[in-house]
User: Fold this.
Amino acid sequence: MHEQLVIVLDWVAILCILAGAMLSFVAAVGLIRFPDLLSRMHTAAKPQVLGMLLVLLGIGLRIMPVEETGVFDFGTLILVGLFQVITVPVAGHIAARVGYRTGRIRHDLVVTDELEERLEATRRAEAARKSGEGGS
Assistant:
């Protein structure tokens, strides 16, 4: 029975690794094919992270039956996955804001532009503050 469980876990691990590799490949193709920054940012963050998590899950399933070093290896995989889930969305958000502020996004593709309202309010406040300082 133990050998059958190991064989099933190996096949599930293979499927997870292949699915993760395909998602990462799709993300790479999307980076090349999509026309603008926001689309590229989306494809760089979402499928890439899910693909990496599937690969890590497959590796974790593959090393799970090993008794000697299973805890350390599995803990390391959890940390790698956790750091990816935390840092990739933040990096994507920062890249989108920088692209927006430098004018590298296509405004005709943006449906709702909440950042423009905030930036305009900030610009008006800065102009009012500067005109108040200049008059004193």
User: Anything to note?
Assistant: The two ends are 86 Å apart (CA to CA). The mean pLDDT is 85. The chain has four helices and no strands.
